[in-house]
Design a protein that fits this description.
Length: 93
Amino acid sequence: MKNKRRKHSPAFKAKVALAAIKNEETTAQLAKRFDVHPTMISAWKKALLDNAEEIFGQHQRSRKKNDATVDELHRHIGQLKVENDFLSRKLGF
């Protein structure tokens, strides 16, 4: 009889990878405790360490993008204000 492949949630993977990074237990002990294969623990740990920089860098990229959008909107508001003032003077309002 063939066992079905289990799918683990990202939260579970992060929990196991963080436990592996702490080095309080061996990979074999963690595998037994979380009921996963030691190779999976190593892969999740490596993925967490490789992508940690991206996790912390996302905030800065989104902030720069937001700042650029805000600057563009401010320029557009200024242009509309100038056009509105011009038309008000021409129409005598």
